[in-house]
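User: Once you have settled down, look closely at the record that follows, taking as long as you need, and be ready to discuss the fold:
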Amino acid sequence: MSRFEIKNWCPGALRPMLSGDGLVVRIRPHGSALSPAQAAGIANAATKHGNGLINLTSRANLQLRGVDPSCHDELLADLATLVLFDRDVAAETRRNIIVTPLRCARHGPETIELAAALEEVLDHAPDLPSKFGFAIDTGEAPVLAEVSADVRLERTACGQLIVRADGAPCGSTVTRSEAPNAVLALASWFAKSGGVQEGRGRMARHLANGSRPSNAQDWNALPATSVATPAPGPHDEGFFVAAEFGQLHAETLGKFAAMGREIRVTPWRMLFLSDISDVPDAEGLITKADDLRLNTTACTGAPGCLQAHAQTRELARALAPHVPKGSHLHVSGCSKGCAHPAPATVTLCATREGFDLIKNGRACDRSHRANLTEEEILLLPHSLFEAS
């Protein structure tokens, strides 16, 4: 029997997940950033051991797809030379950290130091749910406010560091040296106070149920006003580039590596190329904020995912020009809704009988219409967004 199974877990490098096109191997870049050498190495590994496709995830990770199970050990050896995985599965799972891509000259060095220090103290963290995460949002203003995280390291309007539990409006002020252990203490309290139930749990839900640590009276510092999620295109510090449906070709990553600049991985399925004013053309890239594909999300779909009941991305690509401004379309291969767990204006969820149409909901929610064929959907795409 293969040592790789189809499981309901988030894959890693040491514990990949078997899918329809081979293994899915997730890479968690330290500090949410890649050096040019690391990016080039990943591009080569994706081609050498996989099918040349790299997914950008909502956890600011990269996933190599189509990896031959017989090549997994060889792939790990290549990643080891790039310092891109952890010593064991437990360490890999704990290092669920997203770092702001906007670091600026004033706060950039401290942000990098905080990320490295947090990685060190997490060696002493208790067992936490696999989705329990940390956000280091210590640029000029928070930019990760809408990104899933359970413990947040942020700044006040005057630049002071605070540690804040997700779901709490305020946090406690800390110094640079206190910050990593304060983050660890909050995560440890969560685990010890019953926040983990059957291996699952989130901080905001735990607080909503009335739980508070003994030092909650110190939660009196407001984070600075958050800024909007960046859009593809040039930025003061570099260039944001998105990938259509979060999928990047290895060749494209190789081109970015050849530009010789740090590449920061974001939770918006975008890469941030520092100190760059433009990017080379490549298949599937989105470089403008008004690109219609930004309003559409689609998972890998069949046959790449064995749990998917239909292809998804060709349908999503055909429907993208018809999505009204301010709306969002999610095309999901099954009711898990991995690509977009949040509600969407319209969700098309594949089933054995066709596509279910769900309005203002998730892929697992009750359908407005059921068993639509792809032909029916494409015949009248605007009707998907009409009021019930």
User: Anything to note?
Assistant: Residues 1-6 have pLDDT under 50 and may be disordered. The chain has three domains: 17-86+231-286, 102-218, 292-385. The domain at 292-385 is CATH 3.30.413.10 (Sulfite Reductase Hemoprotein; domain 1).
